[in-house]
Amino acid sequence: MSKHTIVVCDHIHEDGLDILQNTDDVNYVYAADIDKTELLNVIKDAEVVITRSSTDVDEKFLDAAQNLKAIIRAGVGYDNVDIEGCSKRGIIAMNVPTANTIAAVELTMAHMLSCMRKFPYAHNQLKQDRIWKREDWYGNELYGKKLGVIGFGNIGHRVALRAKSFEMDVKTYDPYIPSTKATDLGISYTTNFDDILDCDIITIHTPKNQETLDMIGEEQIAKMKDGVILINCARGGLYNEDALVNNLKSGKIAMAGIDVFIKEPAIDHPLLDLPNVTVTAHLGANTKESQKKIATQAAENAIESARGIAYPNALNLPIDESKIPSFVKPYIELTQKMAFLIAQNDKSEIRSINVSAEGEISEYLDSLQTFATVGALSVASGDEINYVNANFIAEEKGIELTTSEFSAHSGYQNKVSVKITTSNGVQTICGTVFNEDVQRIIDINNFSLDIEPKGKMIIMRNNDVPGVIGQVGSILAQENINIADFRLSRGKDGALAVILVDEKVCMNTVSKLEELEAAISVSYAEI
Ligand SMILES: NC(=O)C1=CN([C@@H]2O[C@H](COP(=O)(O)OP(=O)(O)OC[C@H]3O[C@@H](n4cnc5c(N)ncnc54)[C@H](O)[C@@H]3O)[C@@H](O)[C@H]2O)C=CC1
Ligand SMILES: O=C(O)C(=O)COP(=O)(O)O
């Protein structure tokens, strides 16, 4: 039995490792304890890798992992994964988005309480210094304080709910949610970022990206109350780290609770030298409960993706298959086949691919376009093309991808057409689906036909003169090629024949057909 190699690059719960170990068709490699340079060697044969935030899936990593099909980020944030690099290489990246939510929520509350009651100072004074001085540690209560929650997703909204149970006055800023997601829970919603800056405590729960990096810097801190408390259990850099250090030193920020740093491990970070910071070493997801859930989900998803069965929580698929209605699927297949057929008929350099549609199917033009691109490019690039990287590769080759809806109705309930322009000319094939899954090509370059897009086919354009069918028949008979079906279409510019055959046709036979006096063009394709 051939086995799928799955490499585990970071520490995950043993329940996940057991699943991998006990799966017959998996060759599992545990590489969490090795040096990251050595890891590059180990991932050479990996089909799937499981990572956490300690492994950067960057250019070097991807270049080393030549056989990689999928990456499972066993957690939420994927800012350490080069998603575009994955897409270009046809690698599907997935995360495990909700399994550690509660762990991160509870760590946020812990940091908040720790800052309010000055836990680190009080703890150290008694435990390390053996001093009992209760008068030194007057903290503050969460009760009645204003809490600003930036980012109201899985973690942010749960932090807000817990804060409400402490009878805090909670407000959120998240421009990407409907306001009712917050207001229905009794939480104020604002689209004015400055409203959040007016809070007693601010906690951030957004992803890290171009938009959110340095979201809070000197300018925003200057607008905050003196003695504000800032919590970050999301990602290092969402609060500008220099601004954080400066304002903690000056006392503008009274306390900060920090779990994450721009550069981790952060053992020499200036924040660690400040007394008014409570820190944890990126422990947001580190509860046994969360890690058990994440590891089992990550292992199961790794196995499914290695087998090519499913890609749960994929981050870079242009198409979410689960959202595509069943009637669209045969059209997707048909579109890919039509593009594949055209690209076999004309192997010259592709300049543009246009997909047009009419009927309800036109709502799915973007998905159809992606599959047409896969079909067209796979003639030249074979297995290297899949629907994750097709659009990237087309872009790199300078191929223009367009879609359009037919302006006039042809009478078909749904119809799709693929038009490919090459350095040699333009070819168009149209198709439809009958009775839910019977795929048919109905037009090739303006010649009406009715052909199943399947098998070995010779496509011949010829002058509409007597005797052509007989001549084609005798050439194929001489070559021992059996004709399974012969479809002929006549138009004002001659005729087009699609000849379905049982045996593979070699270039020599194609040349003999091309030599017929009536022949205009002949090509051979297999679907
Ligand atoms: N410290 C740790 O160990 C952990 C950290 N995290 C991090 O916590 C963060 C939040 O995670 P989840 O809540 O699970 O993610 P999520 O995707 O459920 O929520 C993120 C929210 O941020 C909002 N958002 C995006 N851009 C925004 C912007 N510019 N301004 C305001 N809101 C914006 C989104 O609309 C979304 O509602 C992520 O950065 C994640 O990586 C998650 C788990 C553990
Ligand atoms: O899930 C996340 O975003 C986290 O930050 C947790 O990261 P980790 O898996 O603990 O390295």
Descriptive notes:
Belongs to the D-isomer specific 2-hydroxyacid dehydrogenase family. Pathway: Amino-acid biosynthesis; L-serine biosynthesis; L-serine from 3-phospho-D-glycerate: step 1/3. It holds the Pfam family 2-Hacid_dh. InterPro entries: ACT-like_dom_sf, ACT_dom, ASB_dom_sf, D-isomer_2_OHA_DH_cat_dom, D-isomer_DH_CS1, D-isomer_DH_NAD-bd, NAD(P)-bd_dom_sf, PGDH. Residues 457-527 form the ACT domain. With 527 residues, the chain is α/β, with parallel strands linked by helices. It has 4 domains: 1-98 and 286-316, NAD(P)-binding Rossmann-like Domain (Rossmann fold, 3-Layer(aba) Sandwich); 101-279, Rossmann fold, CATH 3.40.50.720; 318-454, 2-Layer Sandwich (60s Ribosomal Protein L30, Chain: A); 455-521, ACT domain (Alpha-Beta Plaits, 2-Layer Sandwich), CATH 3.30.70. Helix content is 32%, strand content 25%. It is built from 17 helices and 22 strands. The chain has helices spanning 14-21, 36-42, 59-64, 83-88, 101-116, 119-127, 154-165, 179-183, 193-197, 218-222, 241-250, 288-306, 329-345, 365-381, 390-396, 468-478, 507-514; strands at 4-8, 26-30, 48-51, 70-73, 92-95, 146-150, 169-173, 188-190, 201-204, 228-232, 253-258, 277-279, 350-358, 400-405, 415-422, 425-434, 438-444, 447-451, 456-462, 483-491, 494-501, 519-526. The strands form 4 sheets. Strands 8-7-6-9-10-11-12 form a 7-stranded parallel β-sheet. Strands 14-13-15-16-17-18 form a 6-stranded mixed β-sheet. Strands 2-1-3-4-5 form a 5-stranded parallel β-sheet. β15 and β16 form a beta hairpin. α1 runs parallel beside α12 (288-306), α5 crosses α7 (154-165) and α13 (329-345) runs parallel beside α14. The longest helix has 19 residues, at 288-306. It binds 1,4-dihydronicotinamide adenine dinucleotide and 2-oxo-3-(phosphonooxy)propanoic acid (HPV). Residues 76-77, 100-101, 104, 150-156, 173-177, 205-208, 211-212, 233-235, 259-260, 282, 284-285 line the site of 1,4-dihydronicotinamide adenine dinucleotide.
